[in-house]
Amino acid sequence: MSAKIKVGVLGATGMVGQRYIKLLENHPWFEVTYVAASPRSAGKAYKDAVKNRWLIGENIPAGVADLTVEDANDEKKALGKCQFVFSALEMGKEEIKALEAAYAAEGIPVVSNASANRWTEDVPMLVPEINYSHLDVIAEQKKHHGWDKGFIAVKPNCSLQTYMMPIHALIQAGYPVKRMVVTTLQATSGAGYPGVPSFDMIDNIVPFIGGEEEKTEKECLKILGKVQDGKIVNAEYPVVSSTCTRVPVIDGHTACVSLEFADKKPSLEEIEKIWTSYKSVPQELNLPSAPEHPIVVRHEENRPQPRRDRETEKGMACVIGRLRPCNVFDIKFVSLSHNTKRGAALGGILNAELLKAKGFFDNL
């Protein structure tokens, strides 16, 4: 077996960065050899930088605990220490955008969890089961910037992955979706740490998450778009109306979705068959983090539930229940995904696995 690829984690002391480090422990392809964070953590051993604020609930991986944290703002520090980086940076969008570009310019690919580059036309925003073909735009991205080995690929907002695979499955099966109404019930971990104050969250629902509805309504169109003339052109449909709420759940985003089809309408039985048989490139390539069953359908009248269903397929499945006719549109259902696994770090790792399998790390 060939040696593992050495990887770095930017924003390694934050909540998503910690999740990356824990999920990469014993990964068959990747090994964390570099950690970077804010200047206040730089120079400390990783175990000391996260002392009293390690949030994952298990021990810090032994291979990372004694690594020295570097300043994430100095991209040259990563040279020779890792071959690509996962970005879990927490700073202003323009700062992140500039810093991710600086790493790419140094020949270090960036697999990002941050939102800063999601709307950059030549940066793929990947859900590997859906838009793996968007990797084709990376060649134009490198040419545009004059980058040799470096590039940037990002993942979408965590809540979209609660329902994008079932939408894509239906479109792929020949049932385009014209309009969609979605209400998300999003877990507190989606707000990071320390997140929403407990007084606001206990015995309460917060019916607003800044910027979240705009992401919900627009990012899906880029994911469903196509590569044309060296950039990603957004899809025209579906038109999405969303309401995004924060609920007192730790992990697991839930979405209540109503769909209207563009023309022909499948039966409920056909929809379930489409969903349960759905597989794509990650499953064909047998990527280490890919779920065997990307979409799981439950028939109990009170499922899915975050506490019971978020870990389905190791937290990488979209779990669907309550599929039924809709009196306003055509169908409606409830879906659930694990926001800090599929929606964050493990989704980013799956992106990196796809990039490796497709040869994007061959010459690093």
Automatic annotation (TrEMBL):
UniProt xrefs under InterPro entries: ASADH-related (IPR051823), Asp-semialdehyde_DH_CS (IPR000319), Asp_semi-ald_DH_pep-lack (IPR005676), NAD(P)-bd_dom_sf (IPR036291), Semialdehyde_DH_NAD-bd (IPR000534), Semialdhyde_DH_dimer_dom (IPR012280)
Top-level EC class as recorded in UniProt: oxidoreductase
Superkingdom in the source lineage: Bacteria
Lineage: Bacteria, Pseudomonadati, Spirochaetota, Spirochaetia, Spirochaetales
The protein's name in its UniProt record: aspartate-semialdehyde dehydrogenase
Active site location: 158 (acyl-thioester intermediate), 253 (proton acceptor)
Residue ranges constituting the Semialdehyde dehydrogenase NAD-binding domain according to the UniProt record: 6-138
Annotated signal peptide: none
EC number(s) on file: 1.2.1.11
Record family assignment: Belongs to the aspartate-semialdehyde dehydrogenase family.
A molecular function GO annotation: NADP binding
Pathway participation: Amino-acid biosynthesis; L-threonine biosynthesis; L-threonine from L-aspartate: step 2/5; Amino-acid biosynthesis; L-methionine biosynthesis via de novo pathway; L-homoserine from L-aspartate: step 2/3
Organism: Treponema succinifaciens (strain ATCC 33096 / DSM 2489 / 6091)
Function in brief: Catalyzes the NADPH-dependent formation of L-aspartate-semialdehyde (L-ASA) by the reductive dephosphorylation of L-aspartyl-4-phosphate.
